[in-house]
Design brief:
Blueprint (H helix, E strand, L loop, with lengths): L39 E13 L1 E16 L2 E12 L4 H7 L5 E10 L7 E12 L4 E17 L8 E18 L4 E10 L4 E10 L4 E14 L4 E14 L4 E15 L2
Antiparallel strand pairs: 1-2, 1-12, 2-3, 3-4, 4-5, 5-6, 6-7, 7-10, 8-9, 10-11, 11-12
């Protein structure tokens, strides 16, 4: 089934209360069943992301992969994301990025040719419109299966997919870019009555770790040029040395596969 990673990673994880790095794309949009050799897939996807102390975002992207071995698939992907709220004045005042960019490579392996389990790994670069560039690494496991429906028992017309599993990731900023400006209020006592004073702190985007879960369902045609779509939900918890955020997302992926 058409694979992708977490599109909600493209939601900007920066607001007045939280500064964490954006995670890599970790959505799967695929069950763990290995493809026949020399299968090539192309996928386009769109996703919405948000969460607790997180700005909502919209992401779009494209991904291509190839089954290079009976148990190994490799590929690459590119995506771009934007915040849904076009609050330009606030973003400019706080140096909040107006766009995120991601470029990465990935692999999927079925250890021991087990059809209901795959192990995923990814390596990529994430950048913001404020000059931050980060290295991303991710890994996870997917459990699930595809069920044939329609047609006859010997040749099903379509497959229905159900899958899910844990993911872990790291984003390591290598070029810091512009700092995020967090503004707050402190009470200063200069006399009998305390006075509220506005204070601005410049914070660099920190190294951030992520743990979470993904789960999805989908369907694809089982004959000819296989076309399919999946819907996937995900939940991530991101934490750095000074901040943390809970991130959720929903993505739709659709594409096709050519089997030789």
């Amino acid at each position: 089934m058409t694979p992708t990673r977490i599109t909600h990673a493209l939601a900007t994880l920066l607001c007045s209360c939280t500064v964490v790095a954006p995670p890599p794309l970790m959505m799967r949009h695929d069950d763990p069943v290995p493809e026949p050799g020399q299968t090539t897939r192309v996928l386009v996807f769109v996703g919405l992301g948000g969460g607790v102390w997180v700005n909502e975002g919209l992401g779009i992207g494209v991904r291509a992969s190839h089954q290079v071995h009976r148990d190994v698939e490799v590929g690459g992907q590119a995506a771009v994301g934007f915040p849904l709220k076009r609050d330009t004045e606030r973003r400019e005042a706080a140096n909040i990025p107006g766009a995120l960019y991601y470029l990465g490579a990935f692999s999927r392996t079925n250890p021991g040719s087990v059809p209901w389990l795959s192990v995923d790994a990814g390596l990529g670069l994430v950048a913001t419109s404020r000059g931050m560039v980060g290295l991303t690494m991710d890994s996870g496991a997917s459990f699930g299966y595809g069920f044939g429906v329609g047609g006859n028992k010997a040749e099903r017309a379509a497959r229905v997919l159900v899958y899910g599993g844990p993911v872990v990731a790291l984003t390591l900023p290598v070029i810091p870019g512009d700092p995020i400006l967090k503004t707050g209020t402190v009470m200063m006592s200069h006399g009998p009555e305390p006075e509220a004073v506005s204070v601005t702190e410049a914070i660099r985007i920190p190294t951030t770790f992520f743990i979470g879960l993904t789960a999805g369902v989908g369907a694809e045609s089982a004959t000819g040029l296989s076309m399919g779509s999946t819907v996937e939900a995900s939940l991530l918890y991101g934490f750095s040395s000074g901040d943390r955020a809970t991130l959720c997302g929903l993505t739709l992926g659709t594409g096709g596969a050519s089997r030789q």
